[in-house]
# Entry
Amino acid sequence: MFDRRLVQYFDWGLLGLTLLLGIFGLIILYSAVTAGTPDPQKILCLKQLIWFCVGLVVMVASFLFDYKILDRWSLPFYIICVLLLIAVLLLGKYAGGSRRWLVLGPVSIQPSELVKIAVIIVVARYYSKVVNTIGLSVRELVYPVVVTIIPFVLIVSQPDLGTALLVAVIVASMTVFVKIDRRALICIIATAATALPLVWFFFLKTYQKKRILTFLNPDRDPLGAGYHIIQSKIAIGSGMIFGKGYLKGTQNSLEFLPEQHTDFIFSVLAEEWGFVGALVLLLLFLMLIVWGLNVAQGCREPFGTLLAVGVTAMIFWQVFINLGMVMGLMPVVGVPLPLISYGGSSVVTMMMCVGLLLNVSMRRFMIE
# Structure
């Protein structure tokens, strides 16, 4: 029987904020793909609009069922996503120097986006069973480490270091939230300190090392690896306070700004809308993140709380890494700006995350 409280407690504010960000993203994307180009790629805007509509359907589907069902289906969903990552390595489309997409008829999907949600759900389920006031021990951290390492290695093999690191920091954020004991913390720090040199010399590819070195000094290769960061910083700085005006950004229209519709779309916004426009977008993201934390705080059972924390951590870290990347504060790792950057898999995944937040929010006052 339908419970009227689901409508009463529906989070219309969160829904409105998400729609506002999505519309904002479509407006910025239109400029990124049309301003000053002799052959405007308006088809990308149409595709993004279609994906946004698909995302709305997915979002609705994500809050119609009781999120507690995910407790039972978390592991099968995780296994399916891992199998999709393996399929990408074997059958995936090769583009831009990596294999990240599976072609399914007329559409291409990026399984690494779905994996982020799968890891959040499976880790939330585990932590909700073992959480305690003392803190998690080293033995209790083995399971989350294993379920993180498997997709991490598969995503790095594509190669896509940015998304792999994103999966790791999301789980780390959830782990800090549930608390770990001092011995486990010391063990993690010691392991990380030992692993870093090994990762640098034996696991990082040449271009990945070059990106890190370029981040430390962009001028060491201004026409190569440092070109992205330099042009992005020029675009952001030239926007000044109020920007050059919509569709009037020179770095964008003259095509000096690379990947302007995906990873560096914030630079387009900052050049055309200036500091004021960039600040508005940051405030919208801040509201979304605070809203997500409020949903987690208001939930009355551990699984829902951890699910909301994981989803909010995912949104926060994607925004943080993307903005740090385009402003030259972090290496270029190819992480899209949520709901703003072009990309069907990214938009649908983010809408699914919002749907899960809505799911937890509208049921947080219902206790069985």
